[in-house]
Every structure is written in structure tokens, then in C-alpha cells.
Amino acid sequence: MEITFTVKITEEGIPQLMGLLAKMWDNPAAQVRVETAPEGKTVTVTPEAPAAAPHQATAPAAEAQPARRAPKPLPPVTAAQVQAAAGAFMDEAPGNIAILQGIMTDLGVQAFPQLQPEQLQVFAARLRKHGVAV
Question: pTM for the whole thing?
Fold first, then answer.
């Protein structure tokens, strides 16, 4: 697998970046190479190849696991549905107010009525990540 991306980072931040990239593969032994080019530094991360496992016979194709289907996209939610779910979430615990405020701040609004329709769907998705049924 090869992943390429560009990051603007100071020289001091390179060790931290390399550590984070190695953790992406949950593999602290990943190969990390930093190259200097005229346009800046290039960081290349190559995950260490896993140790070769003993060869096992593969199952016939008929016994293969069926491919997983992608989950169905959730239907769009209305402002009333999201507001009701957010209100119930807020009432569950005092700390949930800060979570809701954080979501709104991330979306660039100060109050629920300021959410645009596409932001409303993002807000609902973020609520679901906190276990809220929307």
C-alpha cells in the first residue's frame, strides 16, 4: 500500500508526525523516511510487512465469506427531529450541553436555528456518534 499526501509542518513537528503516521498502522516499526527537496521536506511512511504466516490451504470459492454490503445511507432528517433528539440528549447529562455547543462551534454556528440544511445532516451524524437516536 502506498499513501501520498502533503503536509506543511515545521522541522520540530516532524518527529511527532512520524510517530502519528507509524501509529496509523498500529505498527511502531514502520519505516519512515524524510527527504529534503527544493519545495520542502517529503515524509514517506512504509508499514513494515507482517511476518509471513505459514501457508494454509484456501477454502474453495463456494465456502468463501459473502462480501459485506455497504450500509444504507440514512434518510435525511428534519430540523424538528434533530432538535428533539438534541434536547433529549441535553437533558440526559449536564456535560452533554458542552458536546452540543462543540458540534455547533465546529459547524460555525452559535445556535441551532442557524444550521443550514446540509449542516443539519452533519449535526445529526455527529449526534449519532454520541449514541443519540436521530
Answer: 0.47
What confidence tens digit (pLDDT) does each residue in 15-40 have? 776 666 666 556 555 555 556 666 66
For the chain, what is the HEC assignment? Answer: CCCCCCCCCCHHHHHHHHHHHHHHCCCCCCEEEEEEECCEEEEEEECCCCCCCCCCCCCCHHHCCCCCCCCCCCCCCCHHHHHHHHHHHHHHCCCHHHHHHHHHHHCCCCCHHHCCHHHHHHHHHHHHHCCCCC
Backbone angles phi, psi at 48, to 5 degrees: -65, 135
Structural domain boundaries of the chain? 11-46, 79-129
* pLDDT digit string, tens, across residues 89-100: 999 998 999 999
